[in-house]
Write a structure and sequence with these properties.
Blueprint (H helix, E strand, L loop, with lengths): L2 H14 L12 E6 L9 E5 L15 E3 L3 H5 L6 E5 H10 L2 E3 L5
Antiparallel strand pairs: 1-4, 1-5, 2-3, 2-4
Length: 105
């Protein structure tokens, strides 16, 4: 047996082994409808719905989620559908500033 080959094989095995990397879990977003104007904290997304020909919003069709604009970061108006972090959404619903907007009720 060749000792040099054994050392090389052992070195290759050590090098190829990878340590598992801890991954951060993505914070789940939860849908709510705002009942009052408020300034939202944390990460959130606004839902844009398509408009009907008469100018009203068509909430029967699924809207597109988008990041908030500069004005919406400072103040988000009542009636907007918002996807936000679960903890923040629970706090808003408990205070009565928002209501749940998920399909399971």
């Amino acid at each position: 047996m060749d000792v040099e080959n054994l050392i090389e094989i052992a070195d290759d095995e050590v090098v190829t082994k990878k340590k598992p990397v801890a991954r951060k879990k993505k914070e789940q977003l939860f849908p709510v409808t705002l009942l009052k104007n408020c300034r939202l904290a944390g990460k959130f997304e606004i839902v844009d719905y398509p408009k009907n020909p008469d100018g009203t919003l068509n909430k029967e069709v699924e809207g597109k989620r988008r990041p908030p604009t500069g004005t919406e970061i400072l103040k988000t108006f009542a009636g907007n559908d918002v996807w936000m972090e679960t903890k923040a959404a629970i706090a808003l619903v408990e205070r009565g500033n928002a209501e749940r907007n998920d399909p399971i009720r």
